[in-house]
Design a protein that fits this description.
alpha/beta; six-stranded parallel sheet; 21 helices; 38% helix; elongated
Amino acid sequence: MTSEGWGTPPVEPISQHYIVCGGNALAHRLAVELVEHYEVPVVVLVPDRTRDHAPQIEQLPGVAAVVEYSSVTEEALRAVRVETARGIALVDGSDQENIHTALSAQDHNPGIRIVLRMFNQRLGDNIERLLRNGTALSGSATAAPAFAAAALSRPNSVQVGDRFLHIAYDEDIDSSRICVVADRIDRQDLSRIRLLPEQEGDSAPFVRLAQAFGDDGPVRRIRGGAPAAGPVGDPVGDPGADGAGDSDAEAAGREPSSRAGSEPEPPARPEQQPEPAAGRVPEQRPAREPGGVAALQALPSEPPIRIGWLRRLRWRLLDTLRYFTSARLRLVLITALAAVLMAFGLLWYLNRDFGWSLYVSLLDLAGAAQPDQHADAAAGTGTGGTWQRVAQVVITFCGITFAPVATAIMVEVLGSGRRGQPRNPGVGTRDHVIVAGLGNLGTRVVAQLHGLGVPVVGLERDPQARGISAVRALGVPVVVDDGPLEEQLRRARLKHSRAVVAVSGDDATNLEAALEARAGKPDVRVVVRLFDDNFARHVYATLDNAASRSVSYLSAPAFAAALMGREVLGTLSVFRHVLLIAELRAEEGGALVGMNRHDLEDPGGVRVLAVRLAERPHLYTWNYADRTRRLGAGDRIVVAASRSGLARLNTTAVAED
């Protein structure tokens, strides 16, 4: 029974469920996360069952109920039984509406877990103090680093302690590798990517050698002085830092005899290994599957984007000239300046005295010249000949034009500032990133790039967009126009840009911007915000030097983990796949107490990166060597996890709480 302003409540009484308020893309992704990875009952409260993503949410098999209310009122909260729910996520509406709903939900259920989406992060931090068990997150702030990094063709990073973790691929992998996070990467078929592949133990190379040679194999010395069985000259490496058993070349992402970046297959069992032919040394390297590899690496600091100061100074001078003058005023100034310089040169040529010529020129330019009298000219006692008088007249008249031109420039600058008009990109704008769409995400991406020292130009069709004023406050030029995209990109100086980031709320509009950018500059880097996965795969397969990201896909795992009471430090993108960097604390009586690395790690799901022991809480021990040590109360672990892997850890911990 659905009527105006009323939705269909759950058919049966429900408890210990999670409520998602919203019908947008983030609400859709969040419902999928909770249903598929955490396997918890979910009730979704949507403003309209026929709009946005509400129809797709209704099709999700694990959703217990979809309730329709035009706004989240007290009646709506009672309809979704907030008093018996374990958590509620507010991912739609304005900041003010979400705050009001969060406080109302807390009144109905003091122990409920609350996660609300807030654009204003400072306000969100203050609101968290009013909530007994809640947190405020920003989907755009979570996703913006990935978009900015994609525009610069560099991996985004997550700060953990004093390190910045990022993803490196193939030949970019170096000695700072912590662990392998993906292999079998095929850029034409991204569904083949295998996340967090199984790693061989430290003794795996010795086991293979023992199986191949038995007790009579030759012995040689490897790096570090440890004896190892194997034929002389056989390139057997010592175990890597992550226990993968890789050689030095492999640890750097370069393989001596096979395609760089592929992961070793598990060793065959003894009965499966072929007998070596007589007089022939058996092949020691395991079979490797073709495809790239990605590894998690650590940087001491996030590398800035450096632009030479000479180039930057030249751009600034050109940009300042364009900013303070219009085309007509520039023409007047340049013509007058050229005339003054020519007249000054003539005076210098006639008198051969640079100081005197400069003195006379400045006086004439200021209108303080003393003209020759007719009697002086007739007697030959004037200041100079005919050509000198002509030069002085030219300088004087040019000086007269400078005063009104300067006044016009000041009026233009002050008038445009009063009208609140955004500054257009100048001729000095070079090697910049164009961000099309200045909504929540676009504003965050502009701020991220501006903070890295990268020139940015904003592009927006709606003159009332909320991000225009925020971008102007940073001093970033903005093109505001509702005309054709081709013209907008031209005004944004596409020909001189390094990348175009299309982050409006519509997939088709973003793709149109990307294609128009490619038509105007074929080699430009394009980053497109896309929700639909199939659409994104086609973009990857069709466009070179392109990347696609989804805000909801990047931020939904963090919202889901926060709803379960876990701390997600950040997300890392492996193409269209997401890895979560999270820190978990072993609570007294919780499921994590008593578990070791063998229990925690799950191939394809969870990899332990670092341990913070309770007695040394400020020290991160990376690649903790003791895999059998059990966690005690107060210990913390930093993990890299897939969505399902983190959900398994969270579900286990919640079940034991």
